[in-house]
Each structure stands twice: as C-alpha cells, then as structure tokens.
C-alpha cells in the first residue's frame, strides 16, 4: 500500500458537486492499494499514519517549534481518499501503466479495512467514494507532505 499524507487545516472531497467527506485540521490521506497487498500492509500503514508526529507543539518562537504531536494529540481528523494512480508506472513511455495496482474488489476491501482501523483508534475519519471521480480541495499546512509505502516496511 502507498499513501501520500498531508497535514491540512481543512480538506474536502466532492463527488458530482456534493460533499462526500470534509475535515478541518488533520490529515488528508491519499491511499493506493497494490497487487499483492494484504491486511498486514493496511495494519502497518494505519498504525504509522495514526502515530505520525507531524503536528507542531506549542513551543516558543517558530524556529523552536518541533513536530512532536500526532493527529489524535491535536484533536484532528483524517480524510481518506482512494487513489489507485499512486501505482502509476511511467518508466516506459509517458502514459502510466497501472498493472501493479490491486484489482478493484481487493482494493475496496483493503481501503475499507484501512478506514475501519483508523476509526477503531478513536479518530474521526471521513472518506471519499471508492471508484468515483472526485474533486479534492485542501489547505496543506507547512506544507507538510509525507510519502509512505508498506513495501518498504517488510
């Protein structure tokens, strides 16, 4: 599984002009499921993301503030948006190949499992709509963007 995690002051995802999910301060997670991924990959990524210390403490002047707090510690929420294009491969040519993305049925099951894990941790978790064309708007704070890949953990 792959994730692009962005620290946001707000994020919203729309489908056909209607809001599917919306959060204030928290994390926007663009989540891709690869062929061969399992619940172990979802467990790894959900735990990593829930515990990511990418929010600043109250410290002194800006140069003394450090990223020491997790999304739960700052009372934030999570917006998870499925994005199979994280498995786009353009090594050969300029048109992406998505051969390494999981089949839709498998991807949906693991995406939903990932969301369940985030919610089970007590976090408010909003979502987009799986396999729909979505419009995502966000305000990235920092900016802070982290790339995670479960394949690098095992």
Q: Tell me the span between the first and last alpha carbons.
A: 12 Å
Give the rounded overall mean pLDDT.
Answer: 94
**At the third CATH level, what is the topology name?**
D-tyrosyl-trna(Tyr) Deacylase, Chain: A
Biggest sheet features: 6 strands, mixed
Flag low-confidence runs. none
When the domains are counted, the total is 1
In CATH, the homologous superfamily goes by the name D-tyrosyl-tRNA(Tyr) deacylase
CATH architecture: 3-Layer(bba) Sandwich
The SSE string, one letter per element, is: EEEHEEEHEE
| Content of β-strand | 35-45%
Structural class: alpha/beta
Number of strands: 8
For the record, the CATH class is Alpha Beta
Q: Which value, in Å, is the CA radius of gyration?
A: 16 Å
Helical residue percent? 10-25%
Q: How would you describe the shape?
A: globular
Number of helical segments? 2
